[in-house]
Design goal:
transmembrane helix, EmrE-like, 12 helices, membrane, mainly alpha
């Protein structure tokens, strides 16, 4: 198969993943009208596990699951406790407290959070460029959280903003530790969800939330689980494998925020605030600035070198 054909397929898979991810903020908010955050974690995780098992069955790799768990049960339990259990529990709680437009915009800072966490966890150096990007991004978070009232520093919902930021820590930390994961990605993700499901079930039982949910809630959880947590990950992974340029596919993710805001307005019915647009512009600007290559200034030869 030609390289050009592979690149077209990579773009198709990448755009499909980005479009699917653009719908999930609206899906979160609508589903939370019928389910509590912990119920949404439980039912969406179950739906995601089913979708991942279906993919493995289609690939003829289901028999590998048991052996992989025996080899990697510790990492499966640990990573599964972080994602999906803790991450989505915190994220859905943030969505239950904040307008979808604010929660999803703040969530886009996770890429910057990963850069900052890599300093203590991976012993990487923090560039001046990263520090400046952090200031710009978190200024955007302040604009969104205070709805433009920066001088008053009065947050529309302080707990919601803190939970949204905490979710970026969990997500970034998950991907940092995932760099040391030797499991095949789809197999590893299925093991994570299988390992986390008992935690979600026990958490709901402990809080008395195993009552039968409304069908609308189950439908929303199935959509969230299949697209946000399961099938879309495989699309994105396929795009990254087929592309000649990882950066060209990775940059497609910047199409998602505005598409997501449009859907939030049309489907959820939220009026998009000017402060959200300004804050999101700052966040995306900071992330783009972080990606720009640094120009190295070449030293000029001295006219009269010292003797």
């Amino acid at each position: 198969m030609s390289s050009a054909h592979n690149q077209k397929k990579a773009y198709a898979f990448g755009l499909g993943a980005v479009l699917a991810w653009s719908t999930v903020a609206s899906a979160f908010k609508l589903s939370l009208q019928y389910l509590s955050p912990m119920q949404l974690v439980l039912y969406a995780s179950a739906a995601s596990l089913l979708s991942l098992l279906s993919i493995l069955a289609w690939q003829g790799r289901l028999p590998e699951l048991a052996a992989a768990f025996r080899r990697h049960w510790k990492s499966s339990l640990l990573l599964g406790a972080v994602n999906p259990f803790a991450y989505y529990l915190v994220l859905f709680q943030a969505y239950s407290l904040l307008p979808a437009q604010e929660a999803q915009a703040i969530n886009y800072t996770w890429a910057l959070t990963m850069t900052l966490l890599a300093v203590p966890l991976l012993k990487q150096k923090l560039r001046l460029q990263d520090a400046m990007a952090a200031l710009v991004c978190y200024l955007g978070v302040l604009v969104i959280g205070t709805r433009g009232q920066l001088l008053e520093l009065h947050f529309s919902n302080q707990l919601g903003v803190l939970l949204a930021l905490a979710s970026t820590l969990l997500w970034a930390g998950y991907w940092i530790f995932n760099t040391r994961d030797t499991r095949e990605p789809v197999l590893g993700l299925a093991l994570n969800f299988a390992s986390s499901l008992p935690l979600s079930l026990a958490w709901c039982a402990w809080h008395g939330q195993l009552t039968p949910p409304a069908w609308q809630g189950l439908a929303g959880a199935a959509y969230v689980g299949a697209l946000e947590m399961g099938f879309t990950f495989v699309l994105w992974l396929s795009a990254m494998k087929l592309t000649r340029s990882t950066a060209s596919i990775a940059n497609l993710i910047f199409l998602s925020p505005m598409a997501s805001l449009l859907l939030i307005h049309l489907i959820v019915g939220e009026a998009i605030l000017p402060s959200t647009l300004l804050g999101l512009a700052l966040i995306l600007g900071g992330l783009l600035a972080q990606k720009l290559p640094l120009r190295r200034v070449q030293p000029q030869p001295l006219a009269n070198p010292p003797s």
